[in-house]
Design a protein that fits this description.
This protein is mainly beta. Helix content is about 5%, strand content about 55%. It has one domain: Beta Barrel (Porin). It has 4 helices and 23 strands. Strands 1-5-6-8-9-11-12-15-16-19-20-21-22-23 form a 14-stranded antiparallel barrel. The chain is elongated and about 75 Å long.
């Protein structure tokens, strides 16, 4: 039994950080930003600046509270290299959410706030009997980050900010079949379920607005090592002859969640029009391998290693908004997201590829203090094929050969109250 094929949970821990620079990131913090292609480092739009660039928070004119929620609907198709039916994901929906509360003196030099967001979250349920069932059948990942933030305007044009990003809650559930059958002809099955330890990172930024028509920002989110210790391992449908090789009950793994650096520019040609460009750089090259330990034999061994060898990746984002009336604003944008996953290293829990995104959004201000934001995103991952020969060449046969194609639709809504 190849232990490498048992668990891919480490990548699962990453399986959706803010749809930034491919891999596992999913940037769905601010509903306004979502409608503009995900830009934000070079803008001071609202309290969501705590996520995109804490340095811009001091330049946000209004204090306020905003809540946002998204729903991600993914359609993924897989066809094995050597033929067979096209396999589709069973239906699953993920609901990233966010909460931002900012306060401080209306005319003062500082602002502070608290941010709660879900940069990691994934739910994939492959078709029953699909060709990769011995690598993965189901994955469910949840996480909640809490970030207290302070921002200070050094001058009327320059501000800085710092947030302490705390992994307050993280859980993962991963399942796969085992290629042994019991007396009823059922394949063995393994389920991993665990919670990540609390960890702390930094989110810092600088924001510069030399004129009413131009703004520039730089932000940096630090690397965090996500660690699961004492996670539960549960087996089912094992024949008596195989149970001696599957006695482990707990697992441990540590995964680097990579650092991200973003440079953003905002241009305001008129009072009504804003255009912005962001470039994200994610240090995925820190993710070299996935290493597990078990408290007993799992497939005959108490540890395993699976190669990753990711490479650093970029995302380009472009978006804008136009104020049609005092109450109504429309937005649009797009993105090109480069995958960090090399050929021959694609795995079922993150069948990643270069992706193109198109976004739209709008806001309606109902009165002096209350407004509603909506956004929608369409993300298309390019078709990604890896052959059995690729897997043999890279010694990554813990994966499955074939072609993946994924499309995602993400509607979102946000509520804002300013004071």
């Amino acid at each position: 039994m190849n232990v490498k094929s048992l668990l891919l949970v480490g990548s699962a821990l990453l399986a959706a950080t803010a749809a930034t620079a491919g891999g596992f990131q999913v940037s769905l913090a601010g509903i306004k930003n979502n409608g503009m292609g995900g830009v934000g480092a070079g803008l001071a739009l609202d309290q969501a600046s705590m996520f995109y660039n804490p340095g811009a928070l001091a330049m946000v004119r209004e204090r306020g509270v905003q809540m946002g929620a998204n729903a991600t609907f993914a359609r993924q198709a897989f066809r094995a290299e050597f033929g067979g039916d096209e396999r589709n994901l069973r239906n699953s929906v993920v609901n990233p959410f966010s909460l931002f509360a900012g306060f401080g003196p209306a005319e003062g030099k500082w602002k502070a706030g608290i941010a709660v967001y879900t940069p990691f979250g994934s739910n994939l349920r492959y078709a029953d009997g699909w060709e990769g069932r011995f690598s993965l059948t189901d994955i469910d990942l949840k996480s909640v980050f809490v970030q207290p933030t302070v921002s200070f305007a050094v001058t009327d044009q320059l501000s800085v900010g710092l947030g302490v990003a705390v992994l307050a809650y993280g859980s993962v559930n991963l399942q796969r079949d085992i290629p042994v059958t019991n007396s009823q002809g059922q394949y063995g099955h393994v389920e991993l379920d665990g919670q990540a330890e609390h960890k702390v990172g930094l989110n810092a930024g600088v924001f510069f607005k030399p004129s009413e028509k131009l703004s520039v920002g730089v932000s940096y989110r630090s690397k965090i090592d996500a660690t699961v210790e004492g996670g539960d391992v549960t087996f089912s449908n094992l024949p008596a002859s195989a149970k001696a090789s599957f006695q482990g009950t707990e697992f441990g793994v540590t995964i680097p969640l990579p650092a991200t650096t973003t440079i953003g520019i905002g241009v305001m040609p008129t009072e009504k029009l804003t255009v912005a460009l962001d470039v994200n750089h994610v240090q995925w090259s820190k993710y070299r391998s996935l290493d597990f330990t078990f408290n007993g034999p799992v497939g005959g061994a108490t540890s395993s290693t699976s190669k990753r060898f990711y490479q650093d990746a970029l995302t380009l984002r472009l978006g804008g908004q136009y104020k049609l009336t005092d109450a109504f604003t429309v937005r649009a944008g797009g993105s090109y997201d480069m995958s960090p996953v090399k050929d021959g290293y694609v795995s079922p829990e993150t069948p990643d590829a270069d992706r193109i995104g198109v976004t739209a959004g709008a806001s309606y201000k109902a009165g002096e203090h209350f407004s509603v934001d909506i956004s929608t995103q369409f993300i298309s991952l390019q078709k990604r094929t890896q052959t059995q020969q690729d897997l043999l060449n890279n010694k990554t046969t813990d994966r499955v050969a074939g072609t993946y194609k994924t499309q995602i639709v993400i509607p979102g809504i946000g509520l804002n109250y300013t004071f």
